[in-house]
Model the fold of this input.
Amino acid sequence: MLPGVWRLRLPLQLPGVPHCNAWALKAGDGLVLVDTGMHERGSMADLERALFQAGFRVEDVRLVLITHAHIDHCGQAPAIAARAGCEVWIHPAFRLHTGRDDVDDPLEHAVEAALQSGVPKAPLRRWAERRKGLGSGQAGTLASDRDLLPGVEIETDVGTWQVVETPGHAPSHVCLHQPERRLLISGDHLLGRVSLYFDVGYTPDPVGEFLHSLDVVAGLDARLALAGHARPFTDIEGHVEANRDLVARRLDAVRAALQACPCTPYEVARAVYGGAFTEEMASWLLTKTRAWLTHLDALGEASADDESPERWTLD
Ligand SMILES: [Zn+2]
Done:
């Protein structure tokens, strides 16, 4: 594709997400590796195979950069760092995920949040049972050797990359920008196919942060996006616009759902997503719905009562 840049397509065992991309950037006698894939059975062999096809070994990695602290992007980082003897750099907001004193058991925390959102108990119990059997996807404890913040520059053979903060999808999300070649490593902030997701409960208004991050990326004038999933794409402006459109449409659907009732986030999610709200997708779609509601709250358009489950009304 580009000399000195390799797309490592790593298989995932996540529903609806068959692969993620790690990006290998030639840097002197080794590589800078952006994102790592998940840690699961066979995942290190998958990475070795992908690196081998590019002519490298895990030991050639000189630095690991993480676009954001989701397991399909950072899960394997500690294992790679241990083998290659290199550092891992992440945006400091990743500690919002890993350093929560109030969360002993993440699964129990998720079940409580679901009950608060009005999810019926029987399907919730089935979901929690399925989750218990799964691994975390994370190899060891994620740690950062240096804060990946604006001002940090990453030298590679294709040029120097700048860090651009792009919170919204995750509070720790950054894009990496190479201005001379107009390249953008876009993580999950911008994907070739519009696919929205927001971490909820860590920052005041993830959707508002995401919209601001779209403006920031549109202003970079990059021409090729190397995304965290699927193929690279051009027409970054068009993709930014498509994301803004979908956000606007979903917010309108949430407003319409709230016309009918005081209703729980679960009821809003069912109204907004209709047939797509299957048991397998429920957790994902409910999290997004909580993000939409939080945004309407931030705009002063809607609010929740203090009951459990909570009920939302238009203000
Ligand atoms: Zn992600």
In short: The mean pLDDT is 93. Residues 68, 70, 169-170, 188 surround zinc ion (CB under 6 Å). Residues 106-135+248-314 form a domain with the Arc Repressor Mutant, subunit A fold (CATH 1.10.10). The radius of gyration is 20 Å.
